[in-house]
User: Fold these one by one.
Assistant:
Number 1:
Amino acid sequence: MKKRRSANQHSDISFDEDFLSASPQSRTAYRVALRQAEAVLLRDYALLTRCYSGAEAADLAEEIGGLEVCPEEGRGLESTLDLVGSSILRHSVVVSDPTCVGHLHCPPLIPALAAESLISATNQSMDSWDQAPAATYLEQRVIDWLGEALKLGTQADGIFTSGGTQSNLLGLLLSRDDFIQRRLGWRSQEKGLPPNAGKMRILASANAHFSVQQSAAILGLGQDAVVPVATDQLGRMDVAVAARFLDALTAQGLLPFAIVATVGTTDTGSIDPLSALADLADQWSAWLHVDAAYGGALVLSHRFGNRLEGVGRADSVTIDFHKLFYQPISCSALLVRDRRAFDTIRLRADYLNPEENEQAGLLDLVTKSIQTTRRFDGLKPFVSLHSVGRRRLAAMIEGTIDLASSTAAMIRDDPILELAMEPFLNALLFRYRPDGVPEAVLDAVNGTIRSRLLISGQALLARTKFSGRVFLKVTLLNPRTERHHIETILTRVKQAGDEAMLMF
Ligand SMILES: Cc1ncc(COP(=O)(O)O)c(C=O)c1O
């Protein structure tokens, strides 16, 4: 660190070039730092030609576990970034590689990467207006746009969250407190759970995301409060079964208060029948939470937007921008149809969001959030949507859904492969299944195929269970994945399967 005269009385060190400011030294330091980061990213990451280097977990743990974290004297940014490039970036998952098709893990749009640099450099904190004056209104604007796009009505509102898990938690928290206040005449925010909270029940399809159960546990209702409803052959919640459960639970003196519908289940992309579930929720005065973490991006598509029919009748909706909206992690939102839902979690801190602010017309977003300090994540979808436009984004999403259909056809036509079900969105399950092989062997072989392809960097597929058996999963979020990539992946799956068969 250079020594200079400084206003800091306790030290003669200037920290000018450590932080971004108007000074020429600072701006130069920033430019150099970003150029160095860009050079490392382009060299050690963008040029990678496989979805994964193939490094084994134990080797990575050993190498990275030995890194010095905080030397007495800094090693300088360039050499630190070089170290990050060789130790970390080269062994990262290449999310934009066309064969990286495992999880709901998208390649991020370049405009969003540009927005990320503005988000971190300006470091606005979205809890109070005085820490994020313009950012507050931009996030609110994106939320209002989303509420309109989902047809949630004039009283809609929402808040950005860290991901679908937190959005689901917040939606179920609001539903719990609404029920407890409105129907049980109790205020859980002050008094905790009421004596009969143990009777409260949530209905969700057996294929709903595990964060529904996790939320019930965190909310003090217990995982067993979630009643799994059977699905039809296409993985959608069976409404008749849900209706019977509501009758039966009520007859037992239990209190079903919320129904969770999913738009795009994690494994098969199935979409629950929203309108029928909204009717059922109306009939039982239950809260309808729609987990559209995955499928919510269909609002952008004129071709497939009708698959969201009924979503506007939901009481709350989870949308993940870091899935099919191609945003870098993390970026999610929870929307509500009636903004008064947030009143049940409203808390005030004198230093942050005092009543006077609201009276003065200032918006402190913390009042709707279960986070305090929060990143300005709303900028990323704004920059992406505004710069790329609906039409092009819709074309990306639609292309992946079309590719999933043709992938399903390729699998169906292959005698060695078995398709679990037709895809609704762009996720599909299949397995290597030559005739006459016992199920237990097929499970082991398919698990081996998945790990072999990953460790050889040939393809990143996920592994899951379907009807109790091991299946491979492809999630075709990447608009750069084309038919020939799928043909290559399926050929590799069969080769790896043939080799694995020799082991069992
Ligand atoms: C349907 C669904 N809901 C919620 C989540 C959780 O989202 P996140 O990982 O952003 O917390 C996922 C994650 O894959 C999901 O598929």
Note: The radius of gyration is 25 Å.
Number 2:
Amino acid sequence: MTTLNEKYLGKVLPYLHGLDGGECKEKIFRNGLKGYEFPCPFCSDCQSKPKHKRKRVAYLLPHKESFSWTFFCHRKQSNECSGDGKSFHNFLMMINPTLFKQYLKEKDPAAFFRQYRDANYKKYLN
Ligand SMILES: [Zn+2]
């Protein structure tokens, strides 16, 4: 059975190839689990050389026994990708807000609609 995280990983992977003929590749990490390496979606654009734009400097590091991943960029040349790494949840939110909304809705429909309703209320309260 596919978990919700795996399902949304599948949906987000096509967005991770980057520009200029970059690629997103599977990679087996030291813990024996499958992750991915790809051009950083946050700092590849600001590289001047095409070779550097294509370079796979970002990883989705697999977690043991949890069907989740941590996003990590080695180059860290933008505000979005600097720091210690991001949960899959946050990565999805930054990379594709539309997919992220669908993800939240599927994960916890009640919470999603509560939030949505509150957001709509706020619009009218101001
Ligand atoms: Zn980066």
Note: The longest strand covers residues 34-38.
